[in-house]
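One such shown below:
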Amino acid sequence: MKVTIEELEAYLLDNYNGGNDQSLFMKLVEEIGDAAEVLNKKAGRKSIGGEDLQVLLGNKLADVIHYTIAIAALNGIDMNNIILAKDMVASEKYHHRTNLEQFVADKRKNEGETV
């Protein structure tokens, strides 16, 4: 199953409705620190226990996305539109071959999906 940004926003808004975005931000910072620790282990800058670093990093990055989208949802921010708009500007600024919106449209067309 694939989940869209909009679906994740709606789910997290439902879960955190009435929640405090500042406390979610503190959790986000904590998870970013945890992800940094895993990256340090992967790079050999910290000792490694018996954990699977790929799985651990994936879980920490999922937590970062979770809290980021939850904060956006609580503040009524449409992350899908923000991501597309910011990428459009960055694509032009850095002379990318394509932008995210066109990349996704082309990919879906090649896979026979409707855009």
About this structure: The chain has a mean pLDDT of 96.
